[in-house]
Amino acid sequence: MPLPDALLLDLAARRAVEGRHASPAVVDQAIDHRMAGLLWSRIEAGAVTVEDADRARLLRIDLANRQHHRVLRSALAEVQRRAAEAGLEVASFKGVTAAARWYARPSERPASDLDVWLNPDQRAEGARLVEALAPEFEVPRKKRAALEASRLPVLEVPITTDLGTVAVDVHFDLLRLGVTPRDPRALWQGVHPIAIEDGPEALVLAPEAALLQLLLHTNRDRFRYLIGYADIARMLIPEDEQEAVDWPAFWRMTRREGAEVPVHETLRTVLVTLGLDPPPGLPGAPRGWRPALWRRLWGPSQRLLGTGSPGGDRRRLRFLPLLVRGATPEAAAAWVRGSV
User: Fold this and answer.
1) Contact in structure between 115 and 92 (CB atoms under 8 Å)
2) In this structure, which of 47, 149, 180, 184 has its CB flanked by the most CB atoms within 10 Å?
3) pTM for this structure?
């Protein structure tokens, strides 16, 4: 599968794209890789031209994304309100809050649902949080036992507001590597509120934890979409100084969680694909069987396949725990169970 067009790679990398034309094939790629909003911004600014039919198509997509973001922001406000009333804290990541932090317009960063993480000091209250968020929601029997035992990594909960119903992924394990996080409190440290368009402030992760989660999630998402690379690029070169990553703290966090291999390999992949400079203090490439396994599982032929990514390659996720340094017994048990 060829890489997305150079125009889309430049958009993802936040490079100037003045005086360019996007053919219908490039517009198709933009839509497939969830980059339609970023492309539309440059079209509106007069930097990129397209055929009239493609202009109309991109405008329709952008308007739909704007409306869905309104629904998501309404749901996020309701999630925060219900959690607070129950005396619980949740932080939002990806999606709506990623758009607010790193993009010029919300619809530049499409989102389908919400992701929130329960304060790890309150993980034992997971069942109570779900009850507070959706009193009428019945947790599936097999998942209820794991939820009540604080072993469930994530649960999709429907939230209904005046604007519609939204799927909310309630996370109890932020990194979802298939092994027990070593210091979830450190991941929560630095959680802070940000302003959200037409809504109350929302709690979000510190830049270091947000980047770590995003790099690891890119593995779970199988490197399918260019918009994921664009997210990472914007964290590497933020326009807002408050969003700058404390790189020494980030590398310490990565080592503490034993995630050097997936983090380094994912970051290297994004840097090479987008032609970006490495961040300060980038460690040397890990050696041994773990990086070799990672490259076999997520090699170039497996990346940026868009919606054409075969569903069967989710089986690769079984190997994620094995990539965590220092967790071999727990990782092997997770691999046997096939639960990641």
Assistant:
1) yes
2) 184
3) 0.95
